[in-house]
Amino acid sequence: MAESTVRRNVVTPGVEPTPIGQLPEVGQVPSHMHAQVVRADRFGDPATAFRPEVVPTPEIGPDEVLVAVMAAGINYNNVWAARGYPVNQIAVRQKRGETEDFHIGGSDASGIVYAVGEAVEGVEVGRHVVIHHGWWEREDPWIARGKDPMIAPSARIWGYDTNYGSFGQFTRVQAHQVMPKAEHLTWEEAAAPTLVGTTAYRMLHGWAGNAVQPGDVVLVWGGSGGLGTQAIQLARLAGAVPVAVVSEEERGHYAQKFGAAGWISRRDFTHWGIPPLVDDTAGQKEWTAGARAFGKRIWEIVGERRDPAIVFEHPGAATIPTSVFVCEAGGMVVICAGTTGFDAMVDLRYHWTRQKRLQGSHGTNDEQAIAYNDLVRAGKIDPALGSTIGFHDLPAAHAAMGRGEAVFGNVSALVGAAEPGAGRTAG
């Protein structure tokens, strides 16, 4: 058995599961814990796919850390996990030899270290931490050759591709994922932005030749959401000019709160989705007129005829044709998701002749996660916490997100933290 799959028992005899909102003494690990659990026979609507259960507390391997979760952030990847689409994560892990027939999701966490594996250095029991979501096998040959670990064959997203994410009282993570919590933030604030923030950091800074530069126009889809608010702030910190795309005026003003130069309502346009075929002259003319009008709105906000050097994408199917169209020559459309669909269409005429880059971006590596977390710890990035919910509200919150009803900014659920507002260091 590979070392990375060996589990070390960390259970403290006689310690029983504690109620949600409570924790045992630091370092004492109960045999079982409360968690929001997805099982294959419940795949579908997240409102019913998630269910609270008591399950065994995960054991850890030599290079792993057990963290008591104080608060857990919410993002779209566990909407997919609850649906079992496009990937049945339980079945995938069972094919790899894992025995659990359930999924505990959650890819954002703030918490307290309760146990460390024998090979772990630099992480101590009792430390207050946040977790980044990049996971990979440390012996992966790709990584041994010095390449980006988040592109390695073994790379996964913790709490989506892996089990025992942050929607349980304890989560199992690799030691390199552990980062110090910002002392000025509450547990729920600290848990809210890490996945979206590190994802946004990689998208804007991770692609040589098209990394964000001072003065760049950056078009940010979903500018009032968790991902968008982080992208806007990161673009501003780099000296760029972020322009938000939102669904309504109130959301536009929310995006401006975090530094957007202005906002565009997507409801002012109707050309979304796959453009008409090239030989449909009238349809092409109508679609192009809509895309050009959208581009002109960007110019109006910027104050000059400048197209986006970077288009920050995640809707996918509905927006990719427009994103490629309005991106400047030699610029980059960088995408990390496909919430409106995966089957996006690119008009290659605008892509190759103007030498634009369509770049996929996924997850984070350690360097990028640490750089982002340093900005948070320095108070330069606001977590944009829009709402705090209870542990038992996790199913409904994912269902609302799946319907597009997510609140402004990020959402956190309290797990070990009993009351909102706890977690700041006094003084």
Topology, element by element:
Layout: E1 32-38, H1 46-49, E2 50-56, E3 64-74, H2 77-83, H3 89-95, E4 109-116, E5 128-131, E6 134-135, H4 141-144, E7 156-157, E8 170-174, E9 178-180, H5 187-191, H6 194-205, E10 217-221, H7 226-237, E11 241-246, H8 249-257, E12 262-265, H9 281-302, E13 310-313, H10 320-326, E14 332-335, H11 348-352, E15 357-360, H12 366-377, E16 385-390, H13 394-402, E17 410-414
Parallel strand pairs: 10-11, 10-13, 11-12, 13-14, 14-15, 16-17
Antiparallel strand pairs: 1-2, 3-4, 3-8, 3-17, 4-5, 5-9, 6-7
Keywords:
single chain; alpha/beta; Quinone Oxidoreductase, Chain A, domain 1; 2 domains; seven-stranded mixed beta sheet; 13 helices; 27% helix; 20% strand; globular; disordered N terminus; RNA-binding; crotonyl-CoA reductase activity; Crotonyl-CoA carboxylase/reductase; NAD(P)-bd_dom_sf; NADP
Structural features, described:
This protein is α/β, with parallel strands linked by helices and 427 residues long. It has 2 domains: 32-190 and 383-414, Medium-chain alcohol dehydrogenases, catalytic domain (Quinone Oxidoreductase, Chain A, domain 1, Alpha-Beta Complex), CATH 3.90.180.10; 208-360, Rossmann fold (3-Layer(aba) Sandwich), CATH 3.40.50. 27% of the residues lie in helices and 20% in strands. It contains 13 helices and 17 strands. It has helices at 46-49, 77-83, 89-95, 141-144, 187-191, 194-205, 226-237, 249-257, 281-302, 320-326, 348-352, 366-377, 394-402, and strands at 32-38, 50-56, 64-74, 109-116, 128-131, 134-135, 156-157, 170-174, 178-180, 217-221, 241-246, 262-265, 310-313, 332-335, 357-360, 385-390, 410-414. Strands 3, 4, 5, 8, 9, 16 and 17 form a 7-stranded mixed beta sheet that branches. Strands 12-11-10-13-14-15 form a 6-stranded parallel beta sheet, with helices on both faces. A two-stranded antiparallel sheet has the order 1-2. Strand 13 (310-313), helix 10 (320-326) and strand 14 (332-335) form a beta-alpha-beta unit. Mean pLDDT is 94; it is low at 1-7.
